[in-house]
Amino acid sequence: MSAPFEERSGVVPCGTPWGRWYQTLEEVFIEVRVPPGTRAKDVRCSLRSRHISLAVCGQELLQGKLFDSTVTDEGTWTLEDRQMIRIVLTKTNRDAGNCWTSLLENEYAADPWVQDQMQRKLTLERFQRENPGFDFSGAEISGNYSKGGPDFSSLEN
C-alpha cells in the first residue's frame, strides 16, 4: 500500500466549463484546460487563503472566493504539456467533515450525486488514516457518512 489513497481508489471529479476539480482530505486539485502551446509566461495565477485568480493570455478563466480557507504558502500551480494547468491547494481544515460542496462560493458546485461520492471517498480516506494496516481504497460504505462518518475515537481499545 505504498501508493497514496487517491491513486489506489481514484478521484471523484466535478466537471466545469474550463476543466474539473476534485479533493482529498488535505488538498483540492484544479485542472484547467488551456490552449495547446500555452507557455508559463502567458499564465497569471494568484492563490490566496480564500481567493483564486487565473488568467491565460490576458483572458480570465477562474476568479473568486474559495469555498473554504487554504494554506496560502502551500498552494502551487504547474503547466503540464503546455495544455493544462494543475493547481493544488492545501485545505486549512483537513478532516473528513470538511467536504467542499463547491470550488468557489456559489460557483462550480458539485451535483448532489458527485457531492455524495466525494463525501464517501473522504470518509474512506479518514478510515484509512485511522487504520493504516487495512486497505479501504476499494471499500463501499452506506449509512451515515456525512460530516466524515461515525466517530469511533471515544471507544476504548
From TrEMBL:
Pfam families the record matches: CS
What are its GO cellular component terms? centrosome; cytoplasm; kinetochore; spindle pole
Chain segments carrying region Disordered? 138-157
Which molecular function terms from Gene Ontology are attached?
unfolded protein binding
List this protein's GO terms for biological process. protein folding
What keywords sit in the KW lines?
Acetylation, Centromere, Chromosome, Cytoplasm, Cytoskeleton, Kinetochore, Phosphoprotein
The answer to whether the entry has keyword Cytoplasm is yes
Q: Which residues form the CS domain?
A: 14-104
Q: Where in the cell is it found?
A: Chromosome, Centromere, Kinetochore; Cytoplasm, Cytoskeleton, Microtubule organizing center, Centrosome; Cytoplasm, Cytoskeleton, Spindle pole
PANTHER family, alphabetized: NUCLEAR MOVEMENT PROTEIN NUDC, NUDC DOMAIN-CONTAINING PROTEIN 2
Q: State what this protein does.
A: May regulate the LIS1/dynein pathway by stabilizing LIS1 with Hsp90 chaperone.
Q: Describe its assembly.
A: Interacts with LIS1.
Q: What is this protein called?
A: NudC domain-containing protein 2
* Organism for this UniProt entry: Catharus ustulatus
Gene name as annotated: NUDCD2
